[in-house]
Amino acid sequence: MSSKLIHPPSMATSQIPISRTTKMLLSFTNLKTMSFRDNPFRLRSMFIGKVTEQSSASSPNQQQQQQDDDITVTQIKQDLYEALKGINRGIFGVKSEKKTEIEELVNLLECRNPTPEPTRELDKIGGCWKLIYSTITVLGSKRTKLGLRSFVSLGDLLQQIDIAQGKTVHVLKFDVRGLNLHDGEFRIVASFKITSKSSVEITYESSTIVPEQLMNIFRKNMNLLLGIFNPEGLFEISYLDEDLQVGRDGKGNVFVLERTEKS
């Protein structure tokens, strides 16, 4: 019986499967022998691409925040004036979508307040301001009792601030159809004192209605009129520049006023 010697297969003829991982390792090994002078950015560009791809991904909230940061005060004010068109200062209510739009613009302005300590720069507060928006509303039976549905029209709402005297005078203009009254007004005098770097405390002092015919119309509803328009209480100035002011009272109502030459 003859025996045969079995020799192990030579490495040259063996078929060893090479996995994908092994191929990648071999590729990186070969790269070590390459001259970066020939292709200096071959590896670098691959990794930079990954980093760029990861850093470009951001959440919707981050993207919205970036957009909000990029918008300027001038643009916000333009958008706000546009949103306030046709709503009669919000006195008789606005749709919820419109109210949300206005509040978002007001919030954007407040985040960019150029006068964070307005009570320390009183010269910017003094003068006459005209209300262009308020969340205080006159609806339902209140509007009917005050005659604001039919023969009484509400005109400008003005605020005269006298810094030297520590006084504010709020003037509501009225137009009464049928009585040929085009300049009637309800005037509220109040004093104020500084309570913080951005807020004041307003105290009611007196009120008058002229002319007498207008007083006769509102006499029985004076408490209602004062309950709506009396500015008494804490008032915080949350935005102030040369021609626009935003404030909030102690009840959370928002007021937007623009500077005017009227007095």
Helices and strands, with pairings:
Blueprint: H1 20-31, H2 42-55, H3 60-70, H4 73-83, H5 96-110, E1 127-134, H6 140-145, E2 152-162, E3 167-176, E4 181-194, E5 199-210, H7 212-218, H8 222-229, E6 233-240, E7 244-249, E8 254-259
Helix pairs in contact: 4-5
Domain Plastid lipid-associated protein/fibrillin conserved: 75-257
Pfam family, one: PAP_fibrillin
GO cellular component, one term: chloroplast stroma
Question: Can you tag this structure with a few keywords?
Answer:
plastid; Lipocalin; eight-stranded antiparallel beta barrel; alpha+beta; disordered N terminus; 263 residues
Describe the structure.
The protein is α+β, with helices and mostly antiparallel strands and 263 residues long. The protein has helices at residues 20-31, 42-55, 60-70, 73-83, 96-110, 140-145, 212-218, 222-229, and strands at 127-134, 152-162, 167-176, 181-194, 199-210, 233-240, 244-249, 254-259. The chain has an eight-stranded antiparallel β-barrel with strand order 1-2-3-4-5-6-7-8. A hairpin with a 4-residue loop joins strand 4 and strand 5. Helix 4 packs antiparallel against helix 5. It is globular and about 60 Å long. The N and C termini lie far apart (131 Å). The model is unreliable at 1-16 and 18-57 (pLDDT under 50). It is found in: Plastid, Chloroplast. Belongs to the PAP/fibrillin family. Residues 75-257 form the Plastid lipid-associated protein/fibrillin conserved domain. One of its GO terms (cellular component) is chloroplast stroma.
